[in-house]
Fold HTH cro/C1-type domain-containing protein.
Amino acid sequence: MSIEPTQVSREAELGAFLRTHRERLTPSDVGLPPGRRRRTPGLRREEVAQLSGLSATWITWLEQGRPVAMSVRALGSLAEALRLSRAERAYLFALAGKPEPRQDAEPAVPVALLASVQAISGPAYLLDRQWTARAWNAAAADLFVGWLDAASGERNLLRAMFLPTALQALVEDWPHRAARLVAEFRVHSLRHAEDPPTRALIERLMEDSPAFAAAWRSQDVDERQGGRRGFHHPMRGLVYFEQLTLVPPAAPGMMLVMLLPETP
């Protein structure tokens, strides 16, 4: 005779699952500074709250096995923050008694995040999981001739970098920057590697660009970092910027990239 698990036991199981996976992560795993000395292993609840855009109190209650009303969106944000695998994510939704949404659909971009791109004075753009530009401002359109300008029909950064010739002429030291871009994308795309759009993008680029194929087969990996970036602009000549990349907690998988004018 089988006995169905009670609601209380299901909630306790969910709490234990979340706590265990939080304790497995380190700040460096999620791009956070180490901070002060830690008395217990793993991330703090406050850090998970920061990454997921949820309340630290809400996460505490979940780990304690309290009854908490959870939306599908909140669970998805929590799964992203904890870097859950596909199987772990499915298990999380099953424990919570919620249907797991399809992962091949790109999440909606928060309105406030779209507005922030336009509010930035220097070139700024927002990349999705496949590094397709979802938003950019006028300064970015003016700088990135062949990608974000009105005449370009290609909004994916990788495809624009490797297939047309415009960005190859625009980006200073293109061979190095292009190879570095692939190494960064390999790391960024790891959590979405099985998503159909990500697989399709990589497979098509492998076919269409020998340079991309060689860089991808090299197995090089690198973090998305800022630093000095040079561009041979067709109207302004050689210009330099300091690149800064942010990962908005409210939009898991996306990146906000800003180019700050280089100061003398």
